[in-house]
Design a protein that fits this description.
It is a single chain. By secondary structure, the protein is α+β, with helices and mostly antiparallel strands. The chain is 26% helix and 26% strand. The chain is built from 2 helices and 5 strands. It has a 5-stranded antiparallel sheet with strand order 1-2-5-4-3, covered by helices on one side. β4 and β5 form a beta hairpin. α1 packs antiparallel against α2.
């Protein structure tokens, strides 16, 4: 079912992919989509989202990458998709927790539109 009030399958903040594994060690396997109405963002909201991403823990200026591995490559990468903001990669439990909480808090504070939970 799809309507303005409810989109089936999009309950909650984060829709994990099959590869998402928070039990993996030593690094968590991260993969999923944050339910933000990217297609409905105004120019101002897109700019806010861009600033918000640059202010997150581990942000790498000039990219959508976060944190770094031993070779200097990003551990996590975000992308702006029609379905929302996707995040994929690997991170320590501490890195992922800090990033996830900071992202959710910043999105709520900015009042960016999300799919209904």
């Amino acid at each position: 079912m799809t309507s303005e009030e409810h989109i089936e399958g999009l309950e909650g903040w984060f829709q994990p992919w099959n590869e998402h594994d928070l039990a993996a060690r030593p690094l968590l396997k991260i993969g999923g989509t944050y339910t933000i109405y990217t297609g409905r963002l105004t120019e101002g909201e897109v700019a806010t989202l861009g600033r918000l991403l640059l202010g997150l823990p581990g942000a790498r200026p000039g990219s959508m990458g976060f944190f770094s591995d031993s070779s200097g490559d990003p551990c996590l990468e975000a992308s702006f998709e029609p379905s929302g903001i996707t995040i994929e990669g690997q991170a320590s439990s501490e890195q992922w927790t800090a990033w996830d909480i900071a992202f959710r808090t910043a999105v709520e504070k900015a009042k960016l539109p999300r799919f209904p939970a």
